[in-house]
Amino acid sequence: MSNEEFRIDIDRVLRTRAARYYKFIPRLAVRWLERLVCQDQLNELLDKIGDKRDVDAADVVLQELNITVDSQGMENIPQQGRFIFASNHPLGGLDGLALISIFGHHYDGNIRFLVNDLLMSVRPLRGIFLPVNKFGRQSRQGVSLIEKEYASDHQMLTFPAGLCSRRQPDGSIADLRWHKFVITSAIQHHRDVVPVYFDGQNSSHFYRMAQWRKRLGIKANLEQALLPGEVFKSRGAHYTVHVGRPISWQKFDTQQAARQAATLRDIVYHLQP
To answer: What is the predicted pLDDT for the residue at 2?
Structure first.
């Protein structure tokens, strides 16, 4: 397979995902969007990845950006068991790669990560990614794939908030509401849940953009386009991941799933030192 097939191409994405409106989009707007999402820099990273895949590919990105991560509490994870690792989502990119590296090495690559289906364009990580359609209805095939993986022996990683953290009214940086799917999946597939706290945050510019977008009443997640830039701003950063004790799936109740997802979110933030 050629390297061209692994490249980020905003123009191609717009042609395929916004075909009805593509002819009305000015070329200058496309070029601006390519710069905003750091298309050239992302493609340089993909070139560095080369033929590496999955955990090895994540390691290459972290090494190229001189990102270091250390994990605390790994001794809390039993040697045997099928788990859902539920983490806060502070960064929107590097946090996922760091978790892939940490748990991918711990489990010899035997992991799957529930992600936005847009990330399936990052082909070197396709072997790990499990796509979720966040902008429409999940296909029957997509639902079947998720069910199959949760029923497998793979260890599952997830950001139950879906979106990355935002600035809260009290000024803190924290996730939005956690979705109950993490609870219902644990019950259905008899998986204990391991709470994970990732210590990090994006730049102030990202949070200001999110606040202004909300104040203007714009529903579209415009700040998401800034996330690739946040990756490169984090060059040379160090992060710490805190792993808590597993919570038995038997403690969960389908009828209380939404409330228990909120409680699980609180448990994760209590891991913060």
So the answer is: 42
Q: What is the mean pLDDT of the chain?
A: 91
Which letter, b or e, does each residue of 118-153 get, where b requires 16 or more Cβ atoms within 10 Å of its Cβ?
eeeebbbbeebbbbbeeeeeeeeeeeeebeeebeee
> Can you give the residue ranges of every domain in the chain?
53-269
Residue 163 pLDDT grade (very low, low, confident, very high; cuts 50, 70, 90): very high
Q: From CA 46, how far away is CA 231, in angstroms rounded?
A: 14
Q: What is the pLDDT of residues 62-75, one digit of tens each?
A: 999 999 999 999 99
- Tally of CA atoms within 13 A in the half-sphere of 235 that contains its CB: 8
Distance CA 212, CA 5 (A): 36
Q: Which CATH architecture has domain 53-269?
A: 3-Layer(aba) Sandwich (3.40)
Return d(Cα 47, Cα 126) in angstroms, integer: 16
Copy the structure tokens of residue 57.
Answer: 């590919």
pLDDT band for position 6 (50/70/90)? low
Q: In this structure, are residues 58 and 109 in contact, taking their beta carbons and an 8 Å threshold?
A: no
Comparing CA positions, the residue from 199, 196, 197, 198 lying closest to residue 246 is 196
Query: Which pairing describes strands 155-158 and 83-87: parallel, antiparallel, or unpaired?
Result: parallel
E runs forming strands in 77-227? 83-87, 111-116, 129-132, 155-158, 166-167, 173-174, 192-199
Residue 236 is encoded by which pair of tokens?
């040379």
Q: How many CB atoms lie within 10 A of CB 24?
A: 8
pLDDT of residue 137: 61
